[in-house]
Amino acid sequence: MTWIRVNQLRVGNRATGASVALLKADPTKLSSRSDDPGQDPGSFDRRTTKLEFEKPNKKCITYIMDQQILQAVDIASSATADVQLKQQALEYITQIKDSPDGWQHCVNLLSSNAQLSPNVKFFVFQVLDSRLPFMNSSQKLAVKDFLFNYLKNLLDKNVVEPVFLRNALSKTFGLLFVHATLSCYQTLIKDLLSPVQAGGNFNELATDYYLRTLLVIHQEIGDQMIAREPEHHERNNLLKDAIRANDMTLMTESWKSILKHFSSTNTALKRDILNNTIQCIGEYVSWIEINLILDEEYLGLLYQFLASPDDQQKITTAGCFNEILHKKMAPMKKLELINFLNLTGILNQMDLKSKEADFDVNVAFSKLVENLGSELVNVLDTSSNEELANTEFKNLTIKKIIDVFPLIFEYLDNDYDDVALEVFPFIGNFLLFLKKNITNEQVDFSYLSSSEILTTLLKKIIMRKKFDEEDDGSEEESIEQFQEVRNKLNSFHDSIVILNETLALDVMINCINESLFNSNSDWRTIELGMYELSHFSEILRNNVMNLPKTMINNSRPYFVFNEMLCKVIDGSTTFLVNHSLIQLLFFELVLKHYTFFTNNNIQVDGVNKDEILLKVLKIFVSNFGVFSENDKVKYRSWYLFYRFIKLTKPPVDDFILEELIKSLLPLLSFDFEVTSQAKLSEDIDLSLIDTKGSFDHQLYLFESIGLLLSLIKKSDKRVSMFESVLQPLFSNLEKCINSMSQLSLGLVVQVHHSLVSVGTILKGFESLNVAEFDEKFVALLQQISQVVLITLENFLAFNIVREASEFCVVRLFILFIKTPSDALEQLLSKFISVIMINFDKLKLQEINNFLNFIGQVMHHCGKSQQIYIMLNSLLTPLVAKVISRIETDSSAAQDDFMKRDILDTQKCFISLLVSMNSDHVSSLWLTNENKGTLVNIINLMFNYIYNYQNNDLSLVKVAITCINSLILGVGLGKVVDPEDVFKNDANVFEEARQLLVTNALLLACEMSFKMKRELLNDAQYRNSILLEVVRTLKAVCYAGCEIPDLQSTKKNKAIKFNEEMVEQLRALLISNMGFPSDLAQDFVEKLVQISDRQFLKYLIQLIEKM
């Protein structure tokens, strides 16, 4: 035994570029067979790794290629072959397919008498399929001869190959038709049909190949669902014309003969042949002459298969009829076709009983019924008024539509949603047609919108919204899928409301009453009633009835709904116990209609709204709501209760509010537990920590507590109840502080949760009237401040504690600014001091939050002398720390996320500086403490702007905005803002003219007239940067004056601007930019006379001319 190697195997005239390894062999006895008697003679020994020969002759090379093809296919299709070897085999197979003459080797291989594996045969057909488009006519004819010889061999020996091989041969025949018919071979279909009835007897196998090939031909040239290249459309149309001219009659006659013969025989391929024949009829009917298959005998056969005991035949035949119905025709011709088919009558005779039928059969038949109905509606919809004037035509179509409704209802009632969904398009088309013709006075379609049809249809639609008996309503995925079905049904429901409001209202009310107030109702029926009541509310909310807005609240549907709502609330305890879905629907409905409880104009006869409100509150805090054992109901009701309290602010007695608060207290204890193995660190990401508990949901309860406390009228009682609520939280924080020596992740998270809970309760007080802020209440707020600040100092190292503390401070700040006092100053002074001392520990997002908070302090407290003094001492160190942090992080930033965070901080910082002018505290810049910082800020902003090529344009924009605000605030060297109460004329900025104004003007000229044209063409630059530059010019010209609203149509007062600054700009345009005097004058006149955006257009036009 020796090893022999062929290094460069050639396929045709091209080397494969690889040695495919492949056979261990005796050079004197080369064979493709294994000596192993247990091995399949058509397979190869997968242990082999090389195929080798020395000095092979031409015959030997052919043999080598045959063997390599055989083994490559065998390896490629093996599930156990070595990965590397398999990759080599696949590469070789691809080369064979791409080779111009590789197909010849494959044909020779298949023509030999060798016993080939199915995979090899399949590969040969694949190679032919891939090469046929590139063959010349002689090659195609050679392939034709080979294919028919191969088929004849199969027929002579009656070899029934596996389905995938029959499909593969048929596909190659089909592709040969596509690529040879218009050039060299026009009789393929006739030649395939010839052996079907050779000698007067049907050849079953030949029939099977004939039909499969026809299906391939349609798929290649007639299937509208396949996207094709434009050039293929023209070719396919020519091929269709060829079939119509040469083969159409022959084909349709053959189909009839095949159906007649094989319906009365019992052979192995009978089922496939009948199904494929029916499928052929359905596929080809869209583009051949339909009259060739519309005779009594043909239809009789199709009806026979439609009622066949074979489910697959039923499904295929239903699909065939669908295609017949889809045939494009004029309305009158389509009606003739439908009338001739008489499908409604046939289906009624079959006594379908869909609930007993197979699921797939039901889907097929429901599609057929839907298509029948939709085609009839389309007949009416596409008919002209002249056609509809034909009474016989119109009435027959209407009758046909009415006749199809029992079949529609049969499948709409089916137990499976997937079956019912199939008839939805008809319902939608039918209702849309009626809506389009509501105002049609020329044609009467009243028979279609009769009370009987609409009532029955609406009842069926409503009952379709009911949960199935097998669905217990507990699986989220199932509920979501069913909600999609309900949404479609609701759309139909709304359409019927539009068509006949009174009818729809009566049906809906009856359904709700029968579902909710029947003592024998199960949970599915009650849920349906609640769902329908909710949908009723949506109909009112969306004004589906198209009532005038002023009439909605006084309309009958609105009164009826309110009566139903009161009735449901009054009797809720009888049905809420049944199911979580019912409970959720109830609470969602009550919240959605909170205005019923707040609007005194809404009244229901015999109903005491105060009692109804108390019932709702009682139900909310019962086992049906916030104390439910079902987590989904419990957590959702916590949110809904919070929203209900926030929106209604229930006007009930203090003792009721106290009882509500007390009832909620057991739910406020923390039940969380850190379940992950995360170690304690100073930078904690709560989203990455696995916890058991419901804290996020509990926050709604804490805010609800705050809202309820704020509603207590007696101040002493309010403070007392507030203290009782806070005490457990304070105790918890004290315990955590005392446990500092045993720090753990759970302990730090507990501190965070406690602080956030306190802040959330405070949030509920934000609407409390300032008159309620008595001494005791303010004292309690001060106590909260101390607890928060002490906790912050002890746990300052942890980011989540800093964030929670800031949240509390912001909430306290919002309350304290209502009644300014020393408490506010103490809070701000202490908090700001702690943050500034530990500024380096803050994350960028924390810095952003702190800057935003300082902005709020400026906005709300800028006129307070003590706060102003504090801000004055804060400004310079804050600016220095922020700038230093930005520079440090920028030099270390390596990824886009970090760069984005730095950009956010830069923009947040600049926004604070800009707000100083609008908040009337620009005088802070001119104090002795901050004047030097002002110079640094001006230089920093100009640096951001001039470095526009490296900076984000959004940063450049806000930097220009900052320059503009500084010009308006201190551009004259002193503060002239009359609302800045702490301005001091003795504080001046001597460098304002040169450092700020002149540089700003130079900047404006640089950013507009000296920019590259491609940048000026950028929409973002023009609409963002250039617009801010315009505002810079305006800020200079209006320095010390009020910038008017030049877009306003009201021009009550004369425009006043700074003439000295305007003259400086005009001179700059002439001296630095080379403007002619008249152009410079026109420029400044337009600048002060027209709006920003109007001047931007002028500026762009001017730049483009220069």
UniProtKB/TrEMBL annotation:
Entry's Gene Ontology BP terms: tRNA re-export from nucleus
Exportin-T C-terminal domain span: 397-1105
Localization per Swiss-Prot or TrEMBL: Cytoplasm; Nucleus
Keyword Hydrolase: no
A GO molecular function held by the record: small GTPase binding
Classification via InterPro entries: ARM-like (IPR011989), ARM-type_fold (IPR016024), Exportin-1/Importin-b-like (IPR013598), Exportin-T_C (IPR045546), XPOT (IPR040017)
Keywords linked to the UniProt accession: Cytoplasm, Nucleus, RNA-binding, Transport, tRNA-binding
Gene3D superfamilies (UniProt xref): Leucine-rich Repeat Variant
GO cellular component term, pick one: cytoplasm
A Pfam family of this chain: Exportin-T
Region (Disordered): 28-49
Main location: cytoplasm
Domain Exportin-1/Importin-beta-like: 163-320
Function: tRNA nucleus export receptor which facilitates tRNA translocation across the nuclear pore complex.
Family as reported in the entry's similarity comment: Belongs to the exportin family.
Protein name: Exportin-T
Natural source organism: Ogataea polymorpha
